[in-house]
Hints:
CATH superfamily of the largest domain: MutM-like, N-terminal
Strand content: 15-25%
Number of domains: 2
CATH class of the largest domain: Alpha Beta
Distance between the termini: 31 Å
CATH architecture of the largest domain: Alpha-Beta Barrel
Largest sheet: 5 strands, mixed
CATH topology of the largest domain: N-terminal domain of MutM-like DNA repair proteins
Shape: elongated
Low-confidence stretches: none
Structural class: alpha+beta
Helix content: 25-40%
Strand order of the largest sheet: 2-9-5-4-3
Amino acid sequence: MPELPEVETIVRSLSSIIIGTEILSTKLLWEKSLAAPSPESFSPLIINQTIENITRRGKYIHLHLTSVHLFVHLRMSGDLLVYPKPYTPGKHDRLLLELNNGKYLIFNDTRKFGRVWLTLHPEDVIGNLGPEPLDQNFSAQDLFKALQSKHRSIKPLLLDQSFIAGLGNIYTDEALHISGIHPLRISDTITYIEALNLFSAIRTVLLEGIEHNGASIDWVYRGGNFQNYFRVYGRENELCSTCGTKISKITVGQRGTHFCQKCQENKI
């Protein structure tokens, strides 16, 4: 599943192409991709809207239109693509938006898990998300207080989008390794110093991911190469670059989890 760096990369790549364009027509090719509103209401609401901005919130792509908001969540295999006219829809295209710059904005989703929302009220879609880890208003002290308020294993907690927005399996494993925290460590046992290290590690791996245009491994994503810089994720039985111990893999919260038993000793 694309995480914060991959989504941020897509947002940045689309900005210069679609901002300022007007939506002329729509073609919904798989109705279940549309979470809201109804297919009958979708076209009348979005046609003639101008794309004024495109941003990211957590793992959501947010298209700010003239008077409504379009959200896209890519889930496992979704992508947003731009192709010039004329264009023949592909097998996995789910939604086409015809733009007035001679192009189509296309939501393509092989596995059909991705979803699209068109709403007047953004909070209906993203209102339950936790803080943005790269937001200047989010501090290490905020993270420590949040960790102390929960009694959960740290790996599933960091994956909870209502706790912190944008982290997924890859960047959580990487951040926990850098900070030396075991993925099963209970959140309210993490000390302030450890929380500082975790805060720094989260920002480090996310910024590295963005720098490398995200990671390209198990989903339909173009161009990222951060997979070449993983410290632990996907490296089971390879040697830890920090201490030389073989990297282990366990299942935590039904997610494959990679860590170094020496660097990330479970202290509690």
